[in-house]
Amino acid sequence: MSSVSTADRELVITRTFEAPCELVWLAMTDPRHVVEWWGPRGFTTTIQEMNLVPGGVWDHVMHGPDGTDYPNHSIFREIAPPHRLVFDNAGGAEGGPHVDFESTWTFEPLGAGRKTKVIIRMLFPTKAKRDTVVEFYGALEGGEQTLERLSEHLPKMAESYREVTIVRTIDAPRALVFQA
Known about the structure:
- It is elongated, with a radius of gyration of 20 Å.
- The longest helix has 22 residues, at 139-160.
- Helix 1 crosses helix 2 (31-37).
- It has five helices and seven strands; from the N terminus they run βααββββββααα.
- Helix content is 31%, strand content 35%.
- The protein has a seven-stranded antiparallel beta sheet with strand order 1-7-6-5-4-3-2.
- It is an alpha+beta fold.
């Protein structure tokens, strides 16, 4: 069986976060959080729809600091919480080159679940399309800045999503405690 390399059509960005997978997953899949960090520095994002089901639509517009809008239309293909998210994305700057690619986000737990390694793999139909995204849109730097913004947002989220475990030892038979 022959394997065809896609390396010349891919962009891969990796970052490790000081947060558990479940929290990083929530930051990526909850529109209330996505709008707080999505896009390079200076960008804001408006989400028209984010339906996180296979076949569901994610329509959003990234607003650049210079006023340029970047409409995006994505279709979710695979959703495996909290470890894998795959979607097809199409978009680009108004008046700029159109781009389309498959985006795969992988969330790997590290450090006894206290850290998460995120791997973003964007697969383009051709090397030329990948190169356009890198050269015209600055996708590598933009991707790094986007993940930097996510790293800044996660501690804010963690304050709201702290897990508290209360343990108490009761000197009584288990059946009696359960009945009570």
